[in-house]
UniProtKB/TrEMBL annotation:
<dbReference type="Pfam" id="PF01266">
    <property type="entry name" value="DAO"/>
</dbReference>
<dbReference type="InterPro" id="IPR006076">
    <property type="entry name" value="FAD-dep_OxRdtase"/>
</dbReference>
<dbReference type="InterPro" id="IPR036188">
    <property type="entry name" value="FAD/NAD-bd_sf"/>
</dbReference>
<feature type="domain" description="FAD dependent oxidoreductase">
    <location>
        <begin position="31"/>
        <end position="381"/>
    </location>
</feature>
<dbReference type="GO" id="GO:0016491">
    <property type="term" value="F:oxidoreductase activity"/>
</dbReference>
<keyword id="KW-0560">Oxidoreductase</keyword>
<dbReference type="GO" id="GO:0005737">
    <property type="term" value="C:cytoplasm"/>
</dbReference>
<protein>
    <submittedName>
        <fullName>Gamma-glutamylputrescine oxidoreductase</fullName>
        <ecNumber>1.4.3.-</ecNumber>
    </submittedName>
</protein>
Length: 427
């Protein structure tokens, strides 16, 4: 059954109006066939179109149907594992390149919003909130690390200072990143899709890729059509299924849960987050929250391994919200939803090429909003023959989950239980 509607969420309910897009019928020829119309696919398509390629994009459901249209809406720099971890794994030269790229995704988003006049409630400023002195120590070293790579829009905050930007009593301090920020994520995707079409790109919805015929001129098959291309970009992430078996073994879909309150009104909203920054805490299993354009609180957290949809999302997330903001105890929750992201064992994205002409990027591991926009640029560069930055990602080591697909969920859940315990005990 095709997904003709977005899952119920605040974002779907407040999405900008868009034209219906057709399903692919019959045969199409193109330079690049992009599979997936989330951020990775849309970013790739935009960069390619700006460089003169003919692009056809296939989407199984609707633009931004997956994580791109359901996430917490936060622009967070770097990767799910930071540059120092990468450096220990791959050495200084490759880490230098990846470090230079770690802050590019946010810049790309802002450039896209400005150039294509995308209405997505873009706000500047993101806070990393420390629950313990140890977490504060990590933020201090993170600031030194990021500044080493030229990232200077950072301010360490003591307990008194963080209280000025987050009205929550739990934090001992934090770090403010003014190049972070937040957006309405589905409206960003819809605006990027409109930009793709304004440059002559074609987007087909309700057109899942069911088979890739590999070869010198690969063909992507959908239920009612075919796309013959010179290159393919696989950008399905957690919604790819088993289309490319080589990619399925080294990644695992995970669900994250989000709730949105009723409108809080100007005064209450401003009392929670006076500067309208977004916030994430420093726990391994972290909570994250922000205000929307119409002054609701979006609050997310928790991970469900293997991407089952939990029965009662509000019961999981509301207690976390009330722990941070007990003053919201009488506030109604208007929306609750879940969305999948793709986790890798290393927590680093997987980028590469199959044969000569099938490129892919996947596995943002919860850091997707900025990374996917960078990935689109890096993939487009590789198709133009500039592969240095692509190779820096492609050379990262990746491993299959122990026990293959059968054991990857319990294995990861056990790890999450362990780290959750560490968060609780303050290790």
């Amino acid at each position: 059954m095709a997904n003709t509607h977005y899952p119920e969420s605040y974002y779907a309910a407040s999405a900008n109006a868009v034209p219906p897009r057709p399903a692919l019928q019959g045969d199409v020829e193109t330079d690049v066939c992009v599979i997936g119309a989330g951020y990775t696919g849309l970013s790739s398509a935009l960069f390619l179109l700006e460089n003169g390629f003919k692009v056809t994009e296939l989407e199984a459901a609707k633009v931004g149907f997956g994580a791109s249209g359901r996430n917490g809406g936060q622009i967070v720099n770097s990767y799910s594992r930071d540059i120092d971890v990468i450096e220990r794994s791959v050495g200084p030269k490759q880490a230098q390149l990846l470090g230079q790229m770690a802050f590019e995704g946010g810049r790309i988003i802002r450039e896209r919003v400005a150039r294509y006049n995308i209405q997505c409630d873009l706000k500047d400023g993101g806070v990393f909130a420390a629950n313990t002195a140890k977490q504060m120590g990590h933020l201090e070293s993170q600031k030194r690390l990021w500044e080493r790579f030229g990232h200077t829009q950072l301010e360490l905050m003591d307990q008194q200072r963080i209280r000025e930007v987050v009205n929550c009593e739990h934090y001992v301090g934090g770090m403010l990143d003014m190049s972070g920020g937040h957006i309405h994520p589905l409206n960003l995707a819809l605006g990027e899709a409109a930009a793709v079409e304004s440059l002559g790109g074609m987007i087909y919805e309700q057109s899942p890729a069911v088979r890739i015929e590999r070869g010198a001129n690969p063909i992507v098959h959908t239920p009612q059509g075919r796309v013959r291309a010179k290159f393919i970009i696989v950008a399905g992430n957690a919604y790819l299924g088993n289309l490319v078996p080589e990619l399925a073994a080294k990644s695992m879909p995970c669900g994250t849960q989000v709730i949105t309150t009723e409108p809080l009104g100007e005064a209450l909203a401003k009392s929670l987050l006076p500067q309208d920054y977004c916030v994430e805490d420093c726990n391994y299993l972290l909570d994250y929250y922000r205000l929307t354009g119409d002054k609701r609180l979006v609050f997310g957290g928790g991970v469900v391994y293997g991407a089952r949809d939990p029965a009662n999302i509000e019961a999981i997330i509301r207690p976390k919200m009330l722990k941070a903001f007990p003053q919201l105890k009488d506030v109604k929750i208007d929306y609750a939803w879940t969305g999948n992201f793709l986790l890798t064992l290393s927590r680093l994205p997987q980028v590469g090429r199959l044969g000569d002409n099938i490129y892919y990027s996947q596995g943002c591991s919860g850091h997707g909003v900025t990374y996917t926009h960078l990935a689109g640029k890096v993939l487009a560069e590789a198709l133009r023959g500039q592969a240095e930055r692509f190779d820096a990602f492609a050379d990262l080591p990746h491993y299959p989950f122990p026990g293959g697909q059968l054991l990857r969920t319990p294995f990861a859940a056990l790890g999450a239980w362990y780290y959750g315990l560490r968060d609780k005990l303050g290790f």
